Amino acid sequence: MSAALPMALRARFQEYIAEGLSGRAAAARLKLSAATGVRWQQKLRKTGAVSPAVQGRPRGHGKLAPHQALLEELVVQDGDITLPELAGALKEATGIVVHSASIGRFLRRLGYTYKKSRWPPQNGSAHV
After folding, report:
1. What distance, in Å, lies between the first and last C-alpha atoms of the chain?
2. Sequential pLDDT tens for the chain (128 residues)
3. Hey, where are the domains in the chain?
């Protein structure tokens, strides 16, 4: 899906419509396609604004959303738990099979982060 056009452009379009131009004429002045002008004018009539529609999938309706409390509790109990261990614990507790990467994305959306620790190599030589 393409990115939405800027709100400043939409505001100028709305001003042109308020001045009495048609959707096609306003679009031509802003160097937009006539189809965009007609769509924006219809949206302006229906809703009173030409703000962009929400894009993407709706939040909070995935497979992991109902189990958020369980995952947060597992992370709080053991801060060093790995994603595969979380996937295994979730499967044992609820029977739901989820890939560990999905759990990682879910936890990042909730604000959980991790930091890799740096340690010297096993042989004692300095890292170059």
Report:
1. 44
2. 467 789 999 999 999 999 999 999 999 999 999 999 999 999 999 999 998 888 877 776 788 989 999 999 999 898 888 999 999 999 999 999 999 999 999 999 888 887 666 666 566 555 55
3. 7-47, 65-109
